[in-house]
Specification:
The protein has 88 residues and is α+β, with helices and mostly antiparallel strands. The protein is 35% helix and 20% strand. A 4-stranded antiparallel β-sheet has the order 1-2-3-4, covered by helices on one side. The longest helix is centred in the last third of the chain and has 23 residues. The N and C termini lie far apart (85 Å). The relative contact order is 0.12.
Amino acid sequence: MRTNYLSDGIVKKNYFCSFFGHRFVQTKKVNNHFSEYVCENCKLQATNDSRGQKITLTTKLKDINETLFYLQLKKQFIAKFYFHKKEE
């Protein structure tokens, strides 16, 4: 009879995260304030809220992050090509 339950696969990856916490890795930098993260163990997706804390990534928040990302790209494009510093 086996007594070692941990090696039998009963403890799953999300139990590891519930015991020790998530190990988030940044997957996408939206702008200077917001980023998207994913947990290495349980593949939970998260993002920053307005206070800087990590919250789970919903479809609504994903759409908001995409919009912020494209606005940031547009701002960088306009700043690079339309507002040159004049050479003297």
